[in-house]
Design goal:
Elements: H1 20-25, H2 31-43, H3 45-56, E1 65-70, E2 73-78, E3 81-82, H4 84-88, E4 101-106, E5 112-116, H5 117-133, E6 142-144, H6 150-162, E7 166-168, H7 175-185, E8 189-193, E9 196-198, E10 201-203, H8 205-213, E11 223-227, E12 241-243, H9 244-250, E13 260-261, E14 265-271, E15 279-284, H10 286-299, E16 307-310, H11 317-329, E17 333-337, H12 348-356, E18 360-363, H13 365-374, H14 377-380, E19 389-392, H15 399-409, E20 416-418, E21 453-456, E22 468-473, E23 483-484, H16 488-496, E24 508-516, E25 522-527, E26 532-534, E27 537-539, H17 541-549, E28 554-564, E29 568-577, H18 585-599, E30 607-610, H19 624-632, H20 646-655
Parallel strand pairs: 4-17, 6-7, 6-8, 8-11, 11-12, 16-17, 16-18, 18-19, 19-20, 29-30
Antiparallel strand pairs: 1-2, 3-13, 4-5, 9-10, 14-15, 15-23, 21-22, 22-24, 24-25, 26-27, 28-29
Helix pairs in contact: 2-3, 5-6, 5-9, 7-8, 10-11, 13-15, 17-18
The structure holds 5'-O-[(S)-butoxy(hydroxy)phosphoryl]adenosine (WT7).
Residues 271, 317-318, 393-396, 418-423, 444, 510-512, 524, 527, 619 line the site of 5'-O-[(S)-butoxy(hydroxy)phosphoryl]adenosine (WT7).
Length: 656
């Protein structure tokens, strides 16, 4: 990492005030109210969080210290006793919510199920007893490798109920990736399914589990529980493999939630990062419960009429925090969808919104760019009038994609919350509150109350407004990760030592470049590992990519630097085009000129390459590291196990 901060070149000045109708019913309904909350939290974070913890959650026993901060280790609600499964289920059963829909599920083939809070509670209790019966006890790690079916949420909540930390591994990961993660966490048991539906085909999950475990490749795993979902014939190993439905049938529905210490581990979730071995991000119970509860409540402005849909997979932190724990802790109705837009039904998302009257829709910029490419006739053929709020997460959203989302999906009626956060942060960190903070397309706007975010140089000094720098957080928050599983040293090095602690004050470094504008809005410019250095100017990837995407011919773009003897680096752009656009010399000239007129000559790409797809992780992030190697004509090295579609790389190589 170089100490020169990042330069900002984006010119984006549009602003969208919260619509009046929305403000009228919003929980936090003015900028002044947001500022009041922010100031209150800043003045005394401990009191701020403690008051919310007491008011919003059930504790079996109160804490005796709000925060114990021994940098970089924080403990929240010390000696408090709590159970997140209790907060997500049991406490709603003594209210009218007992028979409210907790979980609505739609399968890809069109089957569906709905669980009320009472029904979900019963399933979770029974399954918790199944786990106990198989010898799982408090502190044992349980691996979950599942399709997007209700049993995934039931399994997570059952683990939480008995104090067995879960380690969910995304169902799209390979057997090798699964094996490494199970071994790293020393999982005792794995929960899976025969298969799941994705794009009209069966993903053979049990087959992958068999491969991962081999005859003794993961010695810690004694049992495998299998949900019957797709019903193809699969081998079951006697003694090790058990059908979920067989054991669930006979299990008692009486299973009181275990009072957990606030700092007991709730789960570990692996995040790949751009290099090296995946890190097991550890989250604990009390702080995470409070933080996901509050962010869900305020950022999504939840009320009891909402049907809330987050399109993420439970294999990602977004699924943990904003499909399962945050919504259920609030007593909301959360929708889970197994499928993905596919040739046989590219408009399936809009069908789901129409069918269930979804009011809040939360997805990723990569999905939005795919919707744009599929065409606006698809959403326009459905009734989307139930929607009142939209959200995005995962990467900076290109302003043009934001405008499309606002116009075509939100029909100019719905605010958009752009939520910046990370696996490591547990929940939203920089995000608008939809009834209080005007949106600027491409900006995640302002820090959530209690989050002391800043943009600094390498020495930790704040940079001037509109200058680029490193995005940091100056004070602990309840949802923060506690350590890297089994590697505390890596935790310290990765997040707390890049920016040198000053006067004993540690800051959390997120790995992103950002700038803050004159109105206090944060603009995330991408990962600092991806910065391109042209003639001494350090440029973030996001702004150049957004300029390209603002051209009508371009569907998606990724830019990387290629070593250049004169300029240091030259910009190479990888572009996918809208359907029916042909590549010729003129187009290349036009696109280069377009970047120049949007942001300046400095950002002119030296080279533009076209392809029908870009290499992405399974969570939709462009893998610029691989593109960098391609642009430089080098062999691809390092971990490619998180790549979504390997053939994309081969095609890009052939095209070179
Ligand atoms: C990285 C974290 C958080 C859940 C999904 C991804 C990027 C995420 C935004 C946003 C700009 C964003 C950052 C961050 N990112 N959301 N709204 N605006 N950038 O979780 O895999 O842990 O990735 O995603 O670079 O550091 P993750």
């Amino acid at each position: 990492m170089v100490s020169t901060p990042i330069e900002s070149i984006l010119n984006e000045h549009r602003s969208f005030a919260p619509p009046e109708d929305f403000v009228a019913n919003a929980v936090i309904n003015s900028q002044a109210e947001y500022e009041r909350l922010y100031a209150q939290a800043q003045a005394n974070p401990e009191t701020f969080w403690a008051e919310l913890a007491a008011k919003e959650l059930h504790w079996f026993q109160a804490w005796d210290q709000v925060l114990d901060w021994q940098p970089p280790h924080a403990k929240w609600f010390v000696n408090g006793k709590i159970n997140i499964s209790y907060n997500c289920l049991d406490r709603h059963l003594t209210t009218w919510r007992k028979n409210k829909a907790a979980l609505i599920w739609e399968g890809e083939p069109g089957d569906s199920r709905t669980y009320t809070y009472a029904q979900l509670h019963r399933e979770v209790c029974q399954f918790a007893n199944v786990l106990k019966q198989l010898g799982v006890t408090k502190g044992d790690v349980v691996g979950i490798y599942m399709p997007m079916i209700p049993e995934a949420a039931i399994a997570m909540l059952a683990c939480a109920r008995i104090g067995a930390p879960h380690s969910v591994v995304f169902g799209g990961f390979s057997a090798e990736a699964l094996r490494d993660r199970l071994n790293d966490a020393q999982a005792k048991l794995v929960i899976t399914a025969d298969g799941g539906w994705r794009k009209d085909a069966i993903v053979p999950l049990k087959e992958q589990v068999d491969k991962a475990l081999g005859s003794d490749l993961v010695p810690s795993v004694a049992n495998v529980l299998v949900v019957q979902r797709t019903k193809q014939t699969i081998p079951m190993l006697p003694g090790r493999d058990h059908w979920w439905h067989d054991l669930q049938k006979g299990a008692s529905a009486d299973c009181p939630a275990e009072p957990m210490d606030s700092e007991d581990m709730l789960f570990v979730l692996y995040t790949s990062g751009s290099t090296g071995k995946p890190k097991g991000v550890v989250h604990t119970t009390g702080g995470y419960n409070l933080y996901t509860h509050m962010t869900t409540k305020w950022v999504f402005d939840l009320n009891d009429m909402d049907v809330y849909w987050c399109t993420a997979d439970v294999g990602w932190i977004t699924g943990h925090s904003y499909i399962v724990y945050g919504p259920l802790s609030n007593g909301a109705t959360t929708l889970m969808y197994e499928g993905a837009p596919r040739a046989s039904n590219p408009g399936c998302f809009w069908d789901v919104i129409e069918k269930y009257g979804v009011t809040i829709f939360y997805t990723a910029p990569t999905a939005i760019r795919a919707f744009i490419k599929m065409g606006e006739h698809l959403p326009q053929a459905r009734d989307l009038s139930s929607l009142r709020l939209l959200g995005t997460v995962g990467e900076p959203i290109n302003p043009e994609a934001w405008i499309w989302y606002h116009r075509i999906i939100g029909q100019e009626r719905c605010p958009i919350v752009d939520t910046w956060w990370q696996t490591e942060t547990g929940g939203h960190m920089i995000t608008s509150l939809p009834g209080a903070i005007p949106a600027k397309p491409g900006s995640a706007t302002k820090p959530f109350p209690g989050i002391l975010a800043d943009v600094v140089d390498l020495e930790g000094n704040p940079v001037a407004d509109n200058d680029g720098g490193y995005l940091v957080v100056r004070y602990p928050w309840p949802g923060m990760m506690r350590t890297v599983y089994g590697d505390d040293d890596r935790f310290r090095r990765t997040y707390w030592e890049h920016i040198a602690p000053k006067d004993g004050k540690y800051v959390y470094f997120a790995g992103d470049g950002a700038r803050r504008d004159e109105d206090g809005y944060f603009w995330v410019m991408g990962r600092v590992d991806d910065v391109i250095s042209v003639s001494g100017h350090r440029l973030g990837t996001m702004e150049i990519e957004s300029a390209l995407v603002s051209h009508p011919s371009v569907a998606e773009a990724a830019v990387v630097g290629k070593p250049d003897p004169v300029k240091g680096e030259e910009i190479v752009a990888f572009v996918t085009l809208e359907n029916n656009v042909n590549v010729d010399e003129d187009l290349i000239k036009t696109l280069k000129q377009h970047v120049v007129s949007e942001i300046g000559a400095l950002a002119r790409p030296g080279e533009i390459r076209f392809s029908d797809a870009l290499p992405k992780t399974r969570s939709g992030k462009i893998m610029r590291r691989l593109l960098r190697s391609l642009a430089a004509g080098e062999e691809i090295s390092g971990d490619t196990s998180t790549l979504e579609d390997r053939s994309v790389l081969d095609k890009l190589r052939e095209g070179a």
